[in-house]
């Protein structure tokens, strides 16, 4: 269900176990969806996609999700229409289900020990993948501990992700610059069979 969205990204895999899929961008014109970009190959999780995503399972969640209102990146703002936070040392996306900050951005003084269990490096230590990214609005309303965290649309490193969706930098920038908060964009992730139902 796409509700009132006027922009849509679809990521369709052949099957749930596939580690890649085809990404397309759509704009609603009148009552019809018109394709405006793609199809482009995109990477998903190392263990495919899942309707029952869990923390650490290396799967990308399937379903329809919004795009959070702040984009991030180690590099300067590339010209997106969203608020933009330039990532610095000490910026984290909290992956600890026991933390009150689980599945949220948190800044900790550079070099300080975070007040949560660390399972990956801070965001500034991923200058290639996190050069630019949009946050997929998964497991946020409400946040359910252990259901998965840090699901991004980010720059591809040429291989499957640990749960995100990734594209080569140029194509990712095309999508990020195209997105408009006022158009309520959604990203729909699934198999070709399930996406046909949307």
Commentary on this structure:
The protein has 198 residues and is mainly beta. The chain is built from 2 helices and 13 strands. Strands 1, 2, 3, 6, 7, 10, 11, 12 and 13 form a 9-stranded mixed sheet that branches. Strands 4-5 form a two-stranded parallel sheet. A two-stranded antiparallel ribbon has the order 8-9. A hairpin with a 2-residue loop joins β2 and β3 (32-43). The radius of gyration is 16 Å and the shape is globular. The mean pLDDT is 96.
Short description:
By secondary structure, the protein is mostly beta strands.
Distance between the termini: 5 Å
Measured by DSSP, the beta-strand proportion falls in 35-45%
Low-confidence stretches: none
Task: Note the run of SSEs as H and E.
Answer: EEEEEEEEEEEEHEH
Helix percentage range: under 10%
Could you tell me the number of beta strands?
13
Shape: globular
Mean pLDDT: 96
Total of helices: 2
CA radius of gyration is 16 Å
Q: The biggest beta sheet, please?
A: 9 strands, mixed
Structural class: mainly beta
């Amino acid at each position: 269900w796409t509700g009132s969205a006027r922009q849509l990204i679809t990521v369709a895999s052949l099957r749930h176990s596939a580690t890649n899929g085809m990404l397309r961008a759509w704009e609603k014109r009148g009552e019809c969806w018109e394709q405006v970009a793609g199809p482009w190959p995109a990477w998903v999780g190392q263990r495919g996609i899942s309707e029952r995503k869990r923390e650490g399972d290396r799967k990308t969640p399937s379903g329809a999700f919004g795009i959070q209102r702040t984009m991030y990146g180690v590099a300067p703002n590339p010209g997106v229409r969203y608020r933009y936070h330039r990532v610095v040392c000490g910026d984290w996306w909290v992956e600890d289900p026991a933390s009150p900050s689980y599945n949220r951005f948190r800044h900790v003084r550079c070099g300080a020990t975070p007040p949560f269990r660390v399972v990956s490096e801070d965001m500034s230590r991923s200058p290639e993948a996190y050069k630019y990214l949009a946050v997929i609005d998964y497991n946020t309303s409400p946040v359910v501990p252990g259901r998965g965290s840090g699901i991004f649309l980010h720059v591809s490193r040429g291989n499957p992700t640990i749960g995100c969706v990734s594209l080569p930098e140029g194509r990712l920038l095309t999508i990020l610059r195209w997105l408009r908060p006022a158009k309520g964009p959604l990203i729909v992730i699934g198999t070709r069979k399930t996406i046909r139902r949307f």
